[in-house]
Amino acid sequence: MSWRLWAAVAGVVSAAVVLATAEVVAVFVGAESSPLFAVGSLAIDLAPPWVKNLVITLFGTGDKIALLVLLGIVVLALAAVAGLLERRRPPLGIVLLVVVSGIAVLAVTTRAGATALSGIPTVLGMIAGALVLRLLISRLRTWERAVPTSASPAPAVPGRAGGEGDEGSGVAGVYGQSPHPLHPQRPRATPSTPTPLDRRRFLTATAIAAVASVFAGVIARSMNATATAVSAVRDAITLPAAATPAASVPAGAELDVDGITPYVTGNDSFYRIDTALQVPQVNADTWVLKITGMVEQEVEISFAELLALPLEEHLVTLACVSNEVGGDLIGNALWLGYPIRELLARAKPLEGADMVLSTSVDGFTAGSPLDALTDPDRVAMLAVGMNGEPLPVEHGFPVRMVVAGLYGYVSATKWVVQLEVTRFADAQGYWTPRGWSALGPIKTESRIDVPSAGASVAAGTVPVAGVAWAQHTGVAKVEVRIDDGDWQQAQLAETTGPDTWVQWLYPWDADPGSHTISVRATDASGYTQTSDEAPPAPDGATGWDAHSVTVS
């Protein structure tokens, strides 16, 4: 019988009680007081930049699932340790449970929108978990004491004397010989009579606590997740027609090549990278944007007021600064919104201001250059629509920022609720103190979509195709090189303007053998992307995308 295993189980069940109790109480206190995602968000905030880069590189848009799995493993391990400690060194197990719960309280109470009551669910969960851990370990000890050990005297065999050498005589019953006269057998306490009742009490209490935690926790989590659900509100919204519609996508923007990235990225396929473990649920009916800071006049605008303004449509490609060379953390969509510069003009920024610190409802911040948001020749909008429908909740519903030519970490704030006009010398966005540059212009890059890396293709004419981008500047040409040969210019598809990517195609007369295909782009300013390889941090990856293929 592994008593340590049962002690670990008791610890895990107690941790489940903590979480379940907190979820149940959060139903009444407020969904934002749930510790489940608050701890994960705190972990994201405290993690060093290289850890975040590694997670995004390894898991891409699945980074949040990976983090939740990792946190789950850590919680299970700590819970098991708490059970082991409580069995061997009480009350250290309860102390560990209290410490971990205290971290959860800190996480909850420091989240954006936290109130004085936000820590109550976790505190009550901690108390319930500690009581359950104490009860389970107490019953486990009772069961353990009731089971005889291998060194305990075995009961005498009926009909036989218990003399020297007999099975019922202490050491002789164990080793088959009489006790040494110089080492007499130590008297041992007679164990209590083994009874199934002791085991049943422990197992029953453990099962009840586990099942009740799962049942109540799942129901409460579901209620908390839907308590502020905005799907119905979103579905009921009819977006107004754009006063300034986007240019039509030319027929030549889509090349007829199997496997090439579509010119317009669907909402379901659009990449998502942000710091929100739980997608914020913001009710459009109560949403308000505030413009504050270094302005002559603070401005507030509601969602209804925003929709009543003359909206504009623009096709804009967004890119994440964490995108590796050849990566897919980039997408092109049709956005509907209102120019930020018009709202800033109402507020009248003061002299000396050079940055706008945008804040999300979940506390994320991004620092954007003021001149980029006020540039009449640059798309910088409060977007309410994406590809002809209200913003998906995971992409910022009801309102997000879209700024052409800047990486998302300094411009594309989702669920935005505040714009503070300030200075780079006085404020920083979320990622800047974590090692990323304050300014984030998107770099000229290109990517091979087909053939894929490691592919085998037949000899003859092979289409080599992909996308290239130089937002707010425009792509002038794309070149392809086979092995160490000369650079050959590829065919460029049409595009709606410099703020979107462009498809390209190079017909390759492929000979049998192993080959390496490389690509590079040159933007409208004459800059050709460098071959120097650099990681995403601190201001975007560089290098040429290259695929090795086999021709047969």
UniProtKB/TrEMBL annotation:
Pfam family, one: Big_7
Annotated Gene3D superfamilies: 2.60.40.650, Oxidoreductase, molybdopterin-binding domain
Domain of life: Bacteria
Species per Swiss-Prot/TrEMBL record: Herbiconiux sp. A18JL235
Transmembrane segments: 65-85, 92-110, 116-137, 202-220
Keywords, alphabetical: Membrane, Transmembrane, Transmembrane helix
Protein name: Molybdopterin-dependent oxidoreductase
Ranges for region Disordered: 149-197, 525-552
